[in-house]
Fold this protein.
Amino acid sequence: MLFRVNDLHVSYGNIRAVRGVSFEVDEGEIVTLIGANGAGKSTILNTIAGLLRPDAGEIVYNGVDLVPLDAHQVVQLGLALVPEGRRIFGNLTVYENLRLAGFQLGADELNKRIRRAFERFPRLEERRAQLGDTLSGGEQQMLAVARALVTGGKFMLLDEPSMGLAPILVQDIFEMLREINAQGTTVLLVEQNAHMALKIAARAYVLETGEIKLSGASTDLVRNPEVQKAYLGG
Amino acid sequence: MDATFIQQFFNALQLGSLYALIALGYTMVYGVLLLINFAHGDIFMFGAFMGVLGSWVFGWGFVPTLILSMLATALLGVTVERVAYKPLRAASRLSAVITALAVGLLLENGMLALTGADPRKYPDDFFATQVYQIGSVSISTVKLLVIILAFALFVALFLFVRRTKWGMAMRAISYDKFAVPLMGVSQDRIISLTFAIGTGLGAAAGILWGVAYPASLDTYMGMLVGWKAFIAAVVGGIGDIRGAVIGGMILGFVEIFVPYWGQGIGVSSTWRDPVAFALLLIILVIRPTGIFGVARRQKV
């Protein structure tokens, strides 16, 4: 097993946002966590990335316990989080955003990864000297993903990549995730857009108020009446 | 243009360079932490007094003393951040500001207790000055030293912040702290580096101040100069390093040229500070975020 979360508890002060969540991601998979706003999805991702400290539980990646690590150390292991709202650096150029994403890399590896990112997103190369703030929402999402490819690239965590994007762009983003996955990046996807997420993920976990209510193959969950009612507008 | 004007121009450039060097320390720290480091004026004083240590106690010349002072002061700056500010990063802004004021008082009075109240100056041969006569304009090597060294430091800093990955990380932190660790950047390290550079520049200003204005070294020298440099940083747009340089220069020019022109129309030179600050207030009324400042987006 590449990645495993076991009985994770996270709280903000008195509010227990995540209550005993366990799940697994195998190498090469796309796994999704779906759930409504406030279900604890982002909290889980931010905790995995080292931005939050859990109250209890295990987070194990490639046999390494991530819980005691800081965010910049987690990155070294090959995990990269594409945060909610993209969070690209608007005062840095496209190139500088990617350059910073490879902060820990040597010059050769850095240039190789940036070149690969530009090959994947030619639009970003056209805009390489433009400030992040001047990009459109779709381009910013591309940059956020490109940045994660430069930083880690082995295991990518995405927090609501479809948020705020036009439906046509959402299609593009999910298509791109599928391609990135096909090239060997394992993906953990958190989404409110359950419809799209279940389409590209092999397996899914349904999160409700900090607990996992359902899990299984996406094809089964899509047919589950509960899921249809709550998340697929059926 | 008459000779006095040109001479005043160089005086203003010298004073402006010094304010700018100090203002950079305020603005860089504000950029990464949103903290006004009110101890920075006293950091400048500490730098000047490290010059006293280097020149009188060790008997060193200008260059080794400057390096000693910049390194020692950078170490002080990093230590102050670690000990006094870091534990308050999650606390209210007010707690950090009050702590900064307290650190300043500690430095002032600590240095007073250590070195006594007599004003000091550097040895006469610390920086051998020469006066060049170009036509009817005379310029001292001290003035050239201050101006050239300050500009060299500005350029080095600009290149550092623009071109290196550490500079990019500093700019990134000032834009969005949250995402910086996700790039594999240790935020603590970048903050330490920022303090080291900001306080190191303040130390350079301290040494140059002592060379440019002899017999002005006392343990409270950082108070007024520090406030003025802080205001220069705000006028330039706090958080922006170009703004600190421009703000420092504006203040330097106003302080020199108000009495110079005021003389001609019978205004006493005691009006220097009121006029200078009124002008700065006007700039802030027109541009509340300072010349280069942009309104910060409130992140939710």
